[in-house]
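Appendix B, record 7
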Amino acid sequence: MPAQQEPQTSIVLREVTPELSRHMLSDVTTLPAVQLGDFLLQIELDDPSESVREIARRELRETPEVVKHAIEDLKKLLEDDKDLHVPLHSEAWLIRFLRPCKFYPESAYDLIKRYYSFKVKHQSHYEGLTPSKEQNIFNQNILTVLPTRDQFGRRVLVLELGKKWKHNKCSLDEVFKGCVLFLEGAMLEPETQVCGAVVIFDMDGLSMQQVWQFTPPFAKRIVDWLQESIPLRVKGLYIINQPFIFNMVFQVFKPFLQEKLRSRIIFMGKDRDLLYKHISPKCLPDNYGGTLTIPPVTGPQWLELLLLCDREFKAINSYGYKKK
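Structure tokens (predicted):
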């Protein structure tokens, strides 16, 4: 039997319709997508399907009436806050913060303040953060998002921080910034706002030199970001293929973890059945024993797509606490 040919990949541009543009903060007229054989990989801005809307009703109290009042109340809270510069004209932006807070406006307002306070506190990492300025992390090909969602509609981010990670060529700070860019992109997607995301940490081949890169200040920043500052439902952190020395890394993070996030961290090692309990094999590539037939998307391919969204990331960065 002849060897199967790798499907051709190419970038295609999709016109931004008025329906899609309401999710954007910039005035981009086209959105990029990657054609992978028959599959189109893109930032998904279309309205959620009926099954996802049902999850939103059940888990997030999302009904037209609740949404309408929540938007009005959150707008009022933000209008009264003279320290914040935010896109009040954008209902989609307001909903981005209301969804993870189950449409309680006061909670969403608190989340917005924490989101922007974190950016001020860690200004050195956020200043001018765009894909074009952070190309190295994507070119290292250790950070990627699976092309399809899992069986629960969640986005799946994969970090390979073991033998594939050249820590002397790519710092953990760069890894953090790459994660921020991916998750800021994911936050634009209505389906991800409802269903959330999970992260796979593949620690296969982690070395002692790499263990020393994980410092308490770094650990605290990551945990604060995940627990307090990110307007996204992070539903699970799955540690796979970890060697024994990973325990030393976890001990650095442990003091900062609250119970809710701690309960979502699952150590799976090489136990594939445990992984499949949380993510169906149909949604996983063959290197994790899955049967996903769509080819994996490499870091450089994601970069190509994200570079064409640079303007949107600049717009995201233009809001926040006013400089004193």
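Remarks on this record: The two ends are 68 Å apart (CA to CA). The first strand starts at residue 9 and ends at 15.
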